[in-house]
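Team,

Forwarding the record for the chain on the shared tracking sheet. I've put the sequence and predicted structure together so nobody has to dig through attachments.
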Amino acid sequence: MITVRVVRTDVDIDAYVAVRTLVHPETPMPRDVVVDDRRKPDHLDLIAELDGQPVGVASTAKFGGDPDGDLAFVTIRVVAEHRRHGVGTALHLRASEHARLLEKTTFWVAARDTDADSLGYYRACGYREIGRMQDVYLALAAADVTPEIPAGIEIAAATEEHDRGAYAVALEADADIPAAVPIVSGSFEQWRERSFGTFVDRQLSFVALEAGRVVGYATLGRFTEDTFMHWMTGVARSERGRGVALALKQTQIVAARRAGVAYLRTQNDLGNGSMLRVNEKLGYERRFEWVHLSGPLLGG
């Protein structure tokens, strides 16, 4: 018998994390991330049990790239040996109920290009591919980088005094990300909550200044104990092509290595050729691709 329930207790959180780790042991979901997500009023975590054993989990919320749009985000994970028993569908149905309460009409989902089961399931449900992102890692022990700062540019820590300037850059950079679903920066407060949230490390995040004006920024935050994530690198339209993004990432690599970080991870849309070239030049190695799909809510 399949039962689906809401994650409520610390024991539930532990069970949720354990299932996520069983499904993708190479990229485990940090417990701190689950706890932080739960403080958001639109976020819902679910556990599916088969005969009392946790075998699947799901999460759903407003789509972060455009919280006021029609999309809800959903992620569904089912332990491999318990697939094709209706566990994923049960989670999908319950997540769809929540999405309707959020007044959303469509789900956005990401699945690994190596996960044939999940891709097959979503396509059978009428989902279509709308884009892809590359997931890459850099081992800092082997990284030999010296920042190449363009003439007239100063790289400084991303302290709060620079947030308004970074937001002005984000209004251009977010809009220009070649994503299938356009990214909406939102208000300054919304953007700052998303861009400088709980896990972002300002000591490893930087802005590029020209004559005191922010012309680029790059944020880095903790993902796991030994891995930090590039959350965003953005450059003002007028300053692109000068090597600002490269300088920001080089500075982050040097700072992260000095701080004892072992790995850096980032994800970029396949259409973002300029950033893919920056990552390749810096030695980031591809692990897999995320396939982005959109499709209908179930039931209703």
